[in-house]
Protein 1
Amino acid sequence: MTTISRQLPDHFEVEAINRTFGIRAMRYPEDMRLLYKWMHAEHVVDQWQLHLPMPMLRAHFEKMLADDHQRLYIITCNDEAIGYTEIYEAARDRLALYYKAKPEDMGWHMLIGEPSAVGRGYLKPIGMMVSKFIFDNTPAQKIVVEPDSEIEIYRWVADSFAYFEQRLIEMPEKKASLYFCHREAFFESRGYLNYYGVAA
C-alpha cells in the first residue's frame, strides 16, 4: 500500500537564520547510536520517555519504521545531525481518538536531541521547515500537533506561524495542547514571510 507518508521525499532543506536546516530519512541501524544518545539526554528523558536499553530501543524503532502511516527523519543543521522528527498521517494515528481527523491531515513530533543545539533558537526554524515540508509534499490542508501543555515554549513558537491552540486533551502520558495549522494561514503567517520573504 502506497501511503501519503511513504511518498514523502527522503531529503529536504531550507535556509533560515544564516544556516541550512534539513531533514533526511532515518537510517537503520546506522542512526541508533545517535538516537540512543539523544533519548538518554537529560533534556529529552521526561518528555519522550524512551530512555531504554539499546535492544529495547532498537525494537521500538523497528516497529516505528515498519508502520506505514509515518516517516522518521533526522534533523540537520549545516549537515550536522541535531534532532529527530516523526511525520505521520493523523487519521491513522492514535491522535484520531481525540479529534475528528480528515484522511489528508498530517502531524509531527520533534525533538532537538543534541545538547549543543538546545537553547540556540532552532525550534522555530525547524518547526517552520517541517511544516513547509509537509505542505509542499502532501495534500494536507491541516497539520495537527499535540505537545505537552506544560511546555510553554511551544506557545511562543506556534503563534508566529499559524498554529492555533484548539483545546486541552487528556492523553495517557500527558495533558496535551491540540494545535491546528491550516495551509493557507501558514503561508500567510508573519513567521513564514519573515523566513522566506514571499508567500507561496
Note: Strands lie at 11-16, 19-25, 70-77, 80-89, 106-112, 142-145, 163-171, 174-182.
Protein 2
Amino acid sequence: MHKVLQTVVNLFKRKNDDLIAFDEDPYTRSINLERHCFGEFSMANAQANTIMEDQSQVEVASHNALYLGVYDGHGGVEASLYVLNNLFNNLLRFAHDNDNAIAEATLREAVADTERRFFDYVLNNIVQIRTIGKVGTCCLAGVLWKGVLYIANLGDSRAVIGSVVNRRVSAVQLTTDHNCNDPVIREELVSLHPGDDTIVMEKNGWRVKGIIMVSRSIGDAYLKRPPFLLPASFPSYEKVPDPFERGVVSAEPEMLTRVIEETDKFLIFASDGLWELMSNDQAVQIVHKNPRNGIAKRLVTTALVEAARRRNVKYRAMMTTTPGKEPNVGRRTFHDDISVIVVFLDNKTPLIKKHVHDLSYRGSTDGSQPSGFALSALTVAESHSFTGDLKKSFKKRFKGSTSKGQSSRSAEGLHLLLDMEGDSGDQTESSKGKSPWDPVRKHLKWKKH
C-alpha cells in the first residue's frame, strides 16, 4: 500500500479505536442523536472526580421551545444536582406568570429564584451536612424560544455557536468565562471590591481570595453570606474578610439574547472540562466536519485523547485509572469532569408535523422521561398535532437508543404524565373538551385509576 494511503488508513483506524474506547470506558456515557422541535441534538460526558459533579440536561418541547443546561459543580454534588432538579421547573413557573412566554427577564428571574431557594436548602441541611455551605456550581442555562436564544451564565462553562457562510464555519463564543485567570475578570473583581487588596490572589492560578477560580456561581454560601462565614472556611494563608459587607463571589448571571439566523447551524454547550483541552475553533471544526450521530461523544473522545497525550499515555491506558485525585492513578489528575451538548439548528420554525414529544434527557442517565414542558402552556399556545401514523411515531420515540448499549424507553413515565394531565383543572381553551393526549391514551390502552 502506498505510504501516504497507509498513513490515512492508520489515522482512520486510530480515530475509530478511540470512539470504541469511549464506549468501553466505564466513566463515560452519551446520547448519540435525538430530535428536538428545531432540529437534532447529541449529549456526552466523562467523569473524573470521585463523584460526578457535572450535571447536564436537555428539555425538549413538542414545539416552540428547547431548554439546555450544563451545571459544573465544585466542592460536592449538592449544588449542581439542586440546579438540575429545580432551575427548569422555576423557569416554567415564571413563564406561566409571564403570560406563558419566555423572555430574558424570565430566565434571569428563574436563576435568581434558584439561588435563593438553594440557600434555604443549605440552611435546612447545614446541621446534617456540615460542608454544604462550601458547595457551589457554575450554571450555563439556555432557552430557545420561537427562534430566539436566551442564555444565563455564571462561571466558566461556555456556549459557542457554529455559523456557516459560503461553506466556511466560524466559532462565535456567546458567553464570558467568569474565571480569575482572565485579567478582565480580575479587573472586574477589583473594581467591585475597592480597598480589598486580597480580592484576587495567585494560588495555583488566580483565585478569588486565593480560594476559588470562578467569580460567579450558584451556591458557595460561605463566600456570599455572613451567616455561613466561618474562619475554618478559609485557608490558613487567608483571613476572613472583615467587614463582610458583600459576597466575594457573585450570583448575578451574565445574560445574552440572540435571534437565530440562517447562518447559525449548531450550538455547543460544555463545561470547562472540554474547553481546557480544545479551543472553540477546534470544537466547531469537529462538529462541522463529522457525522451528526454521536458528535458529542466525538468531542469528548477528542478531549480525552488530548488529556492522555499530555501525560504521554494512550487513552486506553488512562481508562485504567479510577475517579479522584490520587497521584498517578486518579482520573482527575488527567482531566476534569466533562459535559457536552451539541444542538443542531435546522429550522427556526418548530417541526410540529414530525411528532416531537415533550421529553427530558439528562447526561447522567440513558433514555428519556416525560418533560415538564408537557404540562406547560408554553407548548399548547399552538394546536397539538398528532396526525399521521401516530402508532409508528410513538413506538419509534420510546423504543429509541443511546450509545453504550441500547436502552428501552418505558412508557410508564408517560402513563404518569397522562395521569397528571388528566387530573389538571388548568386547561387552556385549546385543550378543553377533547384532549390532545387522547390518541396517545388510545394507543397505550390507557385507563385512569
Note: The domain at 3-75+89-107+140-173+262-362 is CATH 3.60.40 (Phosphatase 2c; domain 1).
Protein 3
Amino acid sequence: MLKQISVITALLCTVFIFEYCSKKNTDAIASQSYPAITAAFGNNIDPNNFANYAAQPKPNYIVKDNTGANPITNGKATIGRVLFYDKSLSIDNTIACASCHKQTFAFGDTAIQSKGVSGGLTGRHSMRLVNARFANEAKFFWNERAATLEVQTTQPIQDHAEMGFSGQTGRQNLNDLLNKLKGIGYYQELFTAVYGDVNVTEARLQECLSQFIRSIQSFDAKYDAGRALVNNDNQNFPNFSASENAGKNLFNTPPTFDATGNRIAGGLGCGGCHAAPEFDIDPNTRNNGIIGIINATGIDINNTRSPSLRDLLRNGVPNTPMMHTGVFTTVQQVIGHYGNITIAPGNTNLDPRLRPNGVGQKLNVTATEVNNVIAFMNTLSGNNVYTDVKWGNPFK
C-alpha cells in the first residue's frame, strides 16, 4: 500500500513539475518583448506575429513572377517595410523610399521630379511600384540599368541627389549607412528576430526591400472580378459595360496598317506591349517615342521600361503623371501620342510596333474609341493597395 502511495506521489510530482515548467515556458514566450520596436511603431509591428506578406492570394490567371531566388517571407518583408519608410536611409534624415513612392498614389509620385536631399531631384519621374513582382521584365529603372529589383533597391540610397549616401564631395557612403542602422534599436531587434543577429548588410537591405516591394499587389479591380468569370481576355466580361468591353477589345486587338502607316482595321494594339492580365511591359519593348530629358536639351532613347498599367487611374484620374518625363497628365494625351507617332531625328531605338512599314503609326482614333479605352483602363484599378496597413507607414 505504501509502495502504491509512493508511486502515485511521484507521478503527481512529475505532473506538477511538467505543468509548472510548461507554464513558465509559455509565460516566457508570452512576455517576449521588443521595447525599441514598441517605442518606434506601437502596435503597427508585432515581431511575435508578423503581417501576412508571404501567403497573399493571387488569381490563378496571373502566371508571371520575377521573385527568383528571394521568396517573400513575413519577417524580411516587415524589415523591408520599415526600411522603405525610414528617413534614416538618407544622408540628412529627410527622405525615405516612400517619399518618392507614396501609397496614396499607388506607390508613385505626383511630382514630375521627386525631391531628394539638399534640394536634389530625381532625374526621371518616379515609377509606380504596384505589382512589380508580376512583371515579365525583371530589370528595373526606366532605362533598365538594374538587372534585378534587388540591385535596384540600394541604388537610390547611393544616389547623390536622391538619398545621398554617395561617398562623393565628402559625404558618407553605404558602409556608413549600414553602421548607422546597426546602431538603431529597432533594427537591432528586427534583425535579431528575423536573421538571428544584428548584422546589417547591403545584401540584407536588398533582400528585405525587394520582398516588401514585391508584396505590394493589386487584384481587387473590376477587371479581376470579370476575368474570373471567363476563360480568356478575348471574351466579353459579364460585369463590364458595353463601353468597357469595347475598350478591352480595342486595347487587346492589334491594328492593321496600310503602306503609309494608317490603321485600316483592328484595334489599337496596346496589349502588344502591355499584355493582359498583368499589364506589365514586354521585355522586348524598345522606346515609345518619348525621348526627352527633364529640364535639359538633347534626347534619351534608352527608356524602354514602364510600370504596370494597373492602378494607373483612381476614380478616373491618373495617380501620377505618365512617362519617364512625366510629360502626360491625362490618358487622352497618351492615346493621342500613340495615335500619331512621329519618328524624331536620332531616335534609332523606336519600337518596331510603332513604325509599321518604317513609318510612324497613325491610328486615326475616334472620340468613341478614346472613351471606350479610358473606360476599360478604369477597370484595372482596385482599392486595397491604397488602404492596406501592411503596406503603410509603420512610424505613424
Note: The first helix runs from residue 2 to 30.
